[in-house]
Design a protein that fits this description.
alpha/beta; Arc Repressor Mutant, subunit A; 3 domains; binds adenosine-5'-triphosphate; binds magnesium ion
Length: 405
């Protein structure tokens, strides 16, 4: 296909969009945090699925590097936090990637437990070195990990850098496991709090779903003070329009103002939906090249595709009674913002022959939280965790009258 016709839109997890719309306030906030002399505040970057956390995190990296920070990190898979040692290994592995090129003198190394004959040689801070420091340090996992971080920090000045950012995406996967007496999440918080108290410039940047911050606070109440929460919301109207139009500004395709309105409205300002819809519109337009310069938006077809690609799988895992509850929620005026148990109970009286009681709603909301469809915010109110799920549910009602008559 000719280059000029290549579809620029990028719906997909973590794919950098052709034009990153908005987010300047969030980037500014991050820059301020990078300027901290002593790291008092770390970052939680949070928001619903597909709102643009990962790609924004990607733009933080060059920002940090330009200001003299080293950047390490990855996705936090569940396996990284099965136990404390896995987490320590994860952190040390990430660190080793950037410290492997640093050589330190024997003096420092001797003091942390190498055999004397080895310690006479300068040592490279590769994974093996870091891991043997970890293993040879007596005490708890946190003591061992701190010893490694101390050693690395001592070597940082020789690199001309001024600190290290530890960036972890999908951090809502982290959890403590009291039943196994394993507390990897608390470990992470304790260790960073402790090194930061010693004026070591290591900063945590944790990215994840809205469940992340409450989880941190539940593990350690001091997380409230330790983190600045940057919440990503849907894009403002103007930014949504930019996300649609800028990528095609120099190309052959033109979105009419009416098409832009339709796309923005349909997407609800959610970045993933903008990319998804625009990609479909662009593809449809390619099919009819020569016929028109302007793209039309086949709304029904795109909606259907979005429903089956994005929503249907999630909906299929929900039980009938849960569907009823979610449908009641979808009919609340506040379905796209936040709602309380009582509002659901009241609405269900209006709508259902067998309405829900408060304790039942509570219990079901908990189950739905665990499966990632709902979350409870800091003020004890609830929101849908899947963007625009309410609109999908109302569309289902149209096609599936059996449940509601
Ligand atoms: N500011 C933006 N402007 C335009 N498109 C964006 C913007 N932010 C994200 N996108 C697009 O939205 C989609 C989702 O982005 P991303 O994967 O970063 O979201 P996420 O919040 O990390 O999602 P998840 O919770 O699933 O990890 C991608 O296709 C990306 O290109
Ligand atoms: Mg992501």
């Amino acid at each position: 296909m000719a280059k000029a016709l290549e579809n620029p839109f990028r719906p997909g997890a973590g794919h950098m969009p052709p034009y990153l719309a908005g987010r300047t306030r969030e980037q500014e906030e991050f820059r301020k945090l990078l300027a901290q002399d002593v790291v008092l505040q770390n970052v939680v970057l949070t928001g619903l699925r597909g709102v643009g956390k990962t790609v924004l995190l990607d733009t933080f990296k060059p920002e940090a590097t330009r200001r003299g920070w080293v950047w390490v990190g990855t996705d936090l898979s569940e396996s990284a936090s099965v136990d404390e040692e896995s987490l320590a290994r994860r952190i040390i592995t990430d660190l080793a990637v950037i410290t492997a090129g640093i050589t330190v003198e024997h003096v420092e190394v001797r003091s942390i437990g190498f055999r004397p004959e080895r310690s006479r040689l300068p040592v490279r801070l590769d994974f093996n070195t870091l891991w043997s420091v970890y293993s040879n340090t007596p005490g708890l996992v946190s003591d061992k990990l701190k010893a490694v971080l101390d050693l690395v920090w001592a070597a940082v000045p020789s690199t001309g850098k001024q600190g290290i950012v530890f960036a972890y995406d999908e951090a809502q996967n982290m959890a403590d496991h009291a039943e196994r007496e394993q507390y990897p999440l608390s470990l992470l918080l304790d260790v960073f709090q402790s090194v930061q108290k010693k004026n070591i410039r290591f900063m945590l940047v944790l990215t994840g779903l809205p469940t992340l911050f409450p989880k941190l606070v539940a593990a350690r109440t001091y997380s409230e003070r330790m983190f600045r929460v940057i919440s990503l919301e849907r894009l403002a109207k103007k930014d949504s329009r930019d996300a649609v139009t800028k990528p095609v500004a120099d190309g052959p395709l033109v979105f009419t103002p009416r098409s832009v309105d339709v796309i923005v409205e349909m997407s609800g300002g959610y970045p993933y939906f903008i990319q998804f819809i625009c990609r479909e519109v662009y593809d449809a337009w390619i099919q009819q090249v020569g016929k028109s310069k302007e793209a039309s938006v086949p709304v029904d077809e795109i909606q259907q595709k979005l429903d089956s690609d994005f929503f249907a799988g999630r909906w299929a895992r929900v039980t009938d009674r849960q569907r009823e509850l979610l449908t009641v929620i979808a009919k609340l005026d506040s379905a796209e913002s936040e709602f309380a148990v009582l509002e659901i109970v009241e609405k269900s009286k209006e709508l259902l022959a067998k309405p829900f009681g408060a304790s039942h709603v509570n219990q079901m909301l908990n189950t739905l939280s665990e499966s990632g469809l709902i979350y409870k915010n800091r003020h004890g109110r609830y929101s849908l965790a899947v963007p625009l799920l309410n609109r999908f549910i109302l569309r289902q009602l149209e096609t599936d009258k059996t449940l509601w008559g």
